[in-house]
Amino acid sequence: MWHDVEATSDLLNFSLIAETAAGLIHDAGGQPISIGISGSWGTGKSSLVKMIGGALGEKDTSGKPYLFVEFNAWLYQGFDDAKLALLQAVSDVLSEEARNQKTFLEKAADFAKRVRWFRALKIAAPVASAAIVGGAVGGPIGAILGGLSGLVSGSLKESDIEKVKKAYDDLSPEVRELLKEKEVESPQKEIEGLRKAFAELLESLQVTLVVLVDDLDRCMPDTAISTLEAIRLLLFLPRTAFIIAADEKMIRSAVRAHFAQAQFDDELVTSYFDKLIQIPLRVPRLGVNEVKAYVLLLMLDLAVRRKLVDPTVAETAKTNVLAAVKEGWLGGLTRQKLVSAMGAAAAKLEKEIDIADQLAAILATVDQISGNPRLIKRFLNNLLIRESVAKAHGMTISFEHLVKLQLFERCASSAAFEFLAKSVTSSEDGQPEFLHKLEDELKNGEPYEAPDPSWNSPFVADWVALSPSLAGTNLRPLLHLSRDRVVALAALDELSREARSVFESLLEAKTVQHALVEQVKALGESEAESVLTRLKRRARTEQWDVVALRRCLHITKAFPTLGRSFCSLLDEIPPKDRPPVLVPLIASEEWAKELLERWAADAHTPAPVKNAIKIKR
């Protein structure tokens, strides 16, 4: 299995981009710079940010080091104020550096105190409604300041004095200490003082602070904007560099949502974004050569973990493969070049080389994968799971055949897969006659003719021509491993034509659509339950993908009584994979209350999920 986490080891040939970004920061010579790493979900933004940090560390030869702050905004979603969390992270790193240098400790303490002052204002805010608002500062602090002013003028009533006392008592000891020792200034002067203290501390320490911000596009609009505003507080000061990883489209949507009442048009949104991001870099989409290398290097990594290939041999092979990718423009990454690059590891990975060579073109171009590294990794993980299941059941299958059928299952339409499944189950030996005929015709150079309208697509035509041939192979064991896909093989005709049509439409849905809910209602509860059964199988196959889970909500909105059936699926999700974005979608449903209570009480539930549940409550 391959874990879905950011990598510091380059399997995507991103090193050139990382070195370019690191070079821009290094060449800035201490001048402020901000770089935006944009790319859609799963394209490798997090890995690229890590590589930039690594490449920049290697350039640290001047004696004026880089300090790194890694900040994942998504971790603070619904848990803490992202703006203050980022400021605190910066303060902690600079304070640690001052202690290491054993100098400028007073300046570090002054900056830390200013950060704590902003946090003190945040702590005070919750009791603002119970306090008197006075001066330029609100909440309990404002109550205290306003109370003092009222006492001087003689206008404060006895009841107001009691409120002031209560507001002061409600403040934490740290906030009260800050009130005693720090003169209150206007917010503008506080911000100016914070920036000045920050700049002076960096100059005194002779360091450049590099802030790596990740997962910003996973956040709700308020958290995303809060993080951007914290960046803006520290941006464009000498000796600073910000590297921000986020899907640009998502951030623009967050800006529109956060400032909805201000009615930002596209030009203003662009202006807001461009003021923060000086240099936009986009994660390149993987081409055929890059996908070929990526698949092979993942297989090589697995072979090392299985102790089939020596780590030293594997490292040499990896270096050679990536070097060959960089020269792909000279003529493509052919199988011969792959064998040559793999060197001593080639003999043990001959099958894997064939798979990478065969699959790359389709994985890079088909819409369902489009060269997305995360989807490629999930595709390969699913293969390993099915291979393990087959071994556990004593099933003799070819891994190459398993790869080919899963590719069809993942990328072909549901109708096309159902046509294949019906043909296999209706044949006596599990060998559909039409497939044998198709493969023979293509081998003889004859044009492809679809055996069914659902097979009339460029992908299916290319898939039939892929090696290995499936003719003469009993496909029943392979279909048994794919039984969670769309149709129940034991009851292929269980759905009516109308229900099958609704099911096909639901598979295309990315969000909950009212029109589809009405179509489900028209089916009746019995057939809707059958459709839900198939959607649940699909969600398991797609490893609890949020889109797959969201499709099921069409059924529960049409028939809330089927909500408990959906809950049974949600209870199967491993705790670490419970999606926080699903919580707002089901929190108001009666059937989801017990489920969310269990999730909230479970110690293994991720913090973002618990926070989402808490917010909804």
From TrEMBL:
Pfam families from the xrefs?
KAP_NTPase (PF07693)
Domain of life, per lineage = Bacteria
| Residue ranges constituting the KAP NTPase domain according to the UniProt record | 15-389
Name of the protein in its database record: KAP family P-loop domain protein
Annotated source species: Caballeronia udeis
